[in-house]
Amino acid sequence: MSTPGSAAQIPLAPNGPGQVPLLELRALRAGYGAANVLHGIDLSVDPDEVVVVLGANGAGKTTLLRAIASLIPHIGDICVDGQVVARSRPDDMLRRGVGLVPQGRGTLSELSVRDNLRVGAVSRASGREVAADIERWYEVFPQLGKRRGQTAGTLSGGEQQMLAIARAMMARPRLLMCDEISMGLAPLIVTELFGVLRQLNKESGTALLLVEQNAELALDIASRVYLLEVGSIAASGDAATFRSNDAIRRAYLGYLLRGTDHGGDFSRSFVLRDYIRIHLCARGAGAGHRLS
Amino acid sequence: MALALVIVFRSSSTINFAQGEFALFCCFVAWWLNTKGVPMLAALFVAMGVGFLMGVVVERSLIRPVRRRSENAVLIIGLGLFIALNGADGWIWGPADKVFPQLLPHATSDYLLVGGARLQYDTIGIFLGLVLVVGLLNVLFNWTSLGLQMRAVATNPESSSLSGVNVGRVLALSWGISAAVGSFAGVLLVPVLPPNQLDLGQFFPILIFASAAALFGGLDSIMGAVVGGLGIGIAESLLSGYVTILGGQLQLGVALIIIVVVLLWKPTGLFGTRRIERV
């Protein structure tokens, strides 16, 4: 277990000289009421970058994203474009360019598909541009186009997840955070969704911060990885290192890379935690260390 | 009045019990302005403005701090406001009934003859006012960005705020608008409701009727509120007219029975949408 002080040892993003990260967290702590969940997180995302946060159930992945999106209060610094964000609401955060696809998709279930997308664009002024964007998303997800007048609550899980991504993108965020978009969905749909995310990143340069239990797909599109364990960053490094280095795979991702179909299996999560704990104890570190 | 209840419910999923007292307070404001020589039409607009401000201020100061904790707390605060406002009205303007000036011509000779039925101008005026308000509200909900945001906040506040909606502002505005609509209805209705004067207890039965109407039509439907209101009105006069044992005194009882029956039999009302959740 790392202490808040030791978190500072964790290396930050390998930024080019002078480049300001789009999002930077310094010693971020957050939680619910008196219970602290995050114990000092340092993390950064550069413009255009795809970053994945991996971790078992209860590691604090969702709390991390909720804190960044200003849904819950935090201690420590959240910086967007190098500026500290203080006392903000989720809609302020979105105006700064940081959007979130929440866990459970956040469908506005009593509104039509079209209205869901229009709500996503309330922060934008131009009606014509918004209409064009809506059409574009109907093309990206033809299922949504077919059901544009339908109440969103009647969509299937996969369609709702598509809608959630499209709605979040309607505000044209520069950084899109996704909280376990693979949860509860068929592998085929998950692959399609990750394809769209990859395309988004490549074509429009939208930076991505993905929280996932489905490590295989996430590592595939990520450039950097953070491993979250019980509210602290246990390790971080290049996605390529995570993918290629067998020792690391075994140590950190033992089960995750074998089981790609679902993430909610509790017993497996325990296996991951034990792996990490044993690994860290063997090194006598008790804190995160650099992999790359 | 049923409309006012529906507006708040649509954007916040809570029922505001103080709605009637908002309207009563605004009627007192209109009456008071009128006694100072302000023409009734101008007084109506001022009263609506006052209602709007009251709605916004109450939402900001009293409702917002407890909303996160529980919806029941909001209900209780509504009840508290109900009593407090009623007391305040009596304290400021005295408990005696006030003669309330008519906005519309109302002498028995002022009527239109339609197919042998006499339609009083004030009845027609109230009807037209209703049509106007319903029309405007429909435009608001279905054609404006604010309306879209109000509907979004009602179905999922957290997700709306993640989508860029300023949830606090939307809630305050919807309370304001509903209070304004309530006072509009109040000023129009006071002269035609028994005892045809401005009375402290006047809006309590109206709140019951409005609740019955809103429930009957479906709490989240404007259309439902109107149809519910008409339906309740008709049911009432038929029952008290034909079932003579009920007499004129038991009308409120009828409204309450309708509330109970609707809740038991079809909680979503006639036009309400069933909440669909799919995970």
Describe this structure in words.
The complex is a heterodimer of chains A (about 290) and B (about 280). Chain A contains 11 helices and 11 strands. Chain A is an alpha/beta fold. Chain A has a domain of about 200 residues: P-loop containing nucleotide triphosphate hydrolases (Rossmann fold). In chain A, a hairpin with a 2-residue loop joins strand 4 and strand 5. Chain A starts with about 20 loop residues before the first strand and ends with a strand. With about 280 residues, chain B is mostly helical. Chain B has a two-stranded antiparallel ribbon. In chain B, strands 2-3 form a two-stranded antiparallel sheet. In chain B, helix 2 runs parallel beside helix 4, helix 5 packs across helix 6 and helix 5 packs antiparallel against helix 8. Chain B is globular, with a radius of gyration of 19 Å. The two termini of chain B are about 35 Å apart. Chains A and B meet through helix 2, helix 3 and helix 6 of A and helix 6 and helix 7 of B.
Explain briefly what this protein structure is:
The complex is a heterodimer of chains A (292) and B (279). Chain A has 292 residues and is α/β, with parallel strands linked by helices.
Observed structural traits:
A: 292 residues, alpha/beta, Rossmann fold, seven-stranded mixed beta sheet, four-stranded antiparallel beta sheet, 11 helices, 11 strands, 22% strand, disordered N terminus, disordered C terminus, B: 279 residues, mainly alpha, two-stranded antiparallel sheet, 4 strands, globular
Which chain pair has the greatest contact?
A-B, 36 and 26 residues
Roughly what percent helix of chain B?
A: 55-70%
Q: Total number of β-strand segments of chain A?
A: 11
Task: State the assembly state of the protein chains.
Answer: heterodimer
What structural class do you assign from the helix and strand content of chain B? mainly alpha
Task: Give the mean pLDDT of chain B.
Answer: 75
Count of discrete alpha- or pi-helical segments spanning 4 or more residues of chain A: 11
Strand fraction of chain B equals under 5%
